[in-house]
Amino acid sequence: MIYLDHNATTPIRPEVRTAMLPFFDESFGNPSSPHTVGRRVADAVDGSRAQVADALGVATDTIHFTSGGTEADNWALKGVLDAHWLKHRSHGRLVTSSTEHHAVLDTANTLARHGVTVAYQPVDENGIVDVQALMETVAASPAPQLVSLLHANNETGVLQPVAQLGAALRERGVLFHVDAVQSLGKVDLQELAQVVDLMSISAHKINGPKGTGALYIRPGVEIEPLLHGGGQEQGRRPGTLHAAGIVGFGAAVEAATHDGLASMARLGELRDRLQDGLSDLVGDVVVHGGNVDRLAQTLSVSFVGVEAEAVLLGLDQVGIAAASGSACTSDSPEPSHVLLAMGVEPRVASSAVRFSLGWGNDEAQIDQILEMLPPLIARLREMSVF
Question: Is 338 helix (H, G, I), strand (E, B) or coil?
C-alpha cells in the first residue's frame, strides 16, 4: 500500500509507540492520584506538556490537553464566547472564513443558533482571506470578540497570513484563535504562537496517536470550560488524562521537531515531482492553491472530466490511498466547500483528489503512482459521462 492521505491521519512512528507502551502496562496509574504510581504518570505527562510547549515556544502552563483538534476548536470558540456572555450578558461576535474545517464551521453555526453574530469572510481564488477586508470587518461596530482562522487548509494546504493578522488583531485587542492542527510539525509555529491567543493542535497528524490534542491558551484569556467535572488541566478541562496518548503526543512532537525543515524539504520535492508528472503525463489537470504558500506535502488536483470517487476507487484497487478532501466529509456527495468558496466550478471541484505525503513516502512510490495513474485517468475519461 502506498499511503498518500497523511492529512487525514498518519501512522504512529516506532519511537512514539515505544514511548507509549509502558503506559498501557506498568505505568497505568491515574496522573491525578497522589501515590507513587500516579505521580510517576503525572511526571511523564508534565514532560510531554513541556515538549509540546517547547515546540510552540510557550510556557508549559498554557498547554491544555484535549481529545483532539475538534474538541480544541469547540472549546476555543464556545469557551471564549461563553465567558463573554457571563461577563457582559451579550452573545458576542465571531469572525471566521468560508473555508474552515467543519470543526469550526459547525461550531460557528451552532453558536449562531444561540444568538452569536457570525461573519464568514470570503476567500480569493487561491483560498486566502483578504487581510484588509477582514480588518474592516473587525473594525465594524460592534467589534467582534473573537476571530478564528485555519492556518493550513486541510484540503489544499494553502497557508493563511495568520501571523500578519495576529499582530494587527493584537493591536486592536481582538482575541484570535488559530486552528493549527494541519500545520503542526510542518511549519515553525513559534512566531505565530506569539501573536495568537488560542491555538488548536493534534497528535495524529504528526505520526502520534489518535484521540489526543491540545489547546494553547495565552495567559489572561478568559475562557469557560467546555466540560465540567474534576479539576484536571488547571480546572479548565476535567476528565482523567489519557496518559499514553499524551506521552505519544510529546514523542511525536519531539520527532517532528528533530526532522524539522529537512523533512519538509524532502516532501516538497516529492510533491513537486508528483505535480509536474501529473501535469505532463495526464493533461487537463487543475492544481488548487498552487500559486501561493502551502504545505510542502499537500497537493490538491482536479482531473477534469472524471469524478474523484472513480479515481480514488481505481487507485485503491492498485494499492494507493488518497482522498477527495477532508476525511470528516468523505461521505458527502457534495463538492468540497473549500473549492467552491475559491470559485472553482462544481464540475471541476467534483474531480478533485488530494494527495498528502508523509514520513514514509519516497521517490520510488511517486514514480509508481505516475506509472499507474495516467492510464487510469485515460480509461475513466473514455468511459465518463461526467
Answer: helix
Q: Is the peptide bond before 142 cis (omega within 30 degrees of 0)?
A: yes
Length, in residues, of the chain = 386
CATH homologous superfamily of 2-7+260-383: Aspartate Aminotransferase, domain 1 (3.90.1150.10)
Return the domain boundaries, the chain. 2-7+260-383, 14-255
Where would I find the beta strands (DSSP E) of 2-116? 2-3, 63-66, 93-97
Report the distance separating Cα 218 and Cα 221, nearest Å.
6
Q: Is 172 a catalytic residue?
A: no
pLDDT at res. 205: 98
Name the DSSP class of 144: P
Among 21, 328, 348, 372, the active-site one is 328
Residue 215 CB neighbour total at 10 angstroms? 27
139, with CB counted inside 10 A (0-12, 13-18, 19+), is exposed
What's the CATH number of domain 14-255, 1.10.10.10, 3.40.640.10, 3.90.226.10, 1.20.1440.230? 3.40.640.10
The predicted pLDDT at position 334 comes to 81
pTM of the prediction?
0.95
pLDDT along the chain (386 residues), means of 10: 98 98 95 94 97 98 98 98 93 96 98 96 98 94 88 98 96 96 97 98 98 98 96 95 98 93 93 97 95 97 96 97 72 84 97 96 98 96 78
If phi > 0 it is left, if psi is from -120 to 50 it is alpha, else beta; for residue 355 that is beta
Q: Phi first, then psi: what are they for 152, rounded to 5°?
A: -115, 120
Residue 268, C-beta contacts closer than 8 angstroms, at least 6 positions apart? 296, 297
**Cα–Cα distance list, 291 to 62, 156, 264 (Å):** 36, 11, 18
Cβ neighbours of 332 (radius 10 Å): 13
Straight-line distance from the first to the last Cα atom of the chain, in angstroms, rounded to the nearest whole number: 29
Element (H, E) at 80: helix 69-88
Helices (H), 114-220: 131-139, 162-172, 190-193
The confidence score (pLDDT) of residue 143 equals: 75
pLDDT of residue 140: 87
**Which is nearest to 145 in space by CA: 87, 193, 100?**
87
Distance of CA 12 to the CA centre of its chain: 17
CA distances from 144 to 81, 117, 119, 217, 349 (A): 10, 9, 9, 18, 33
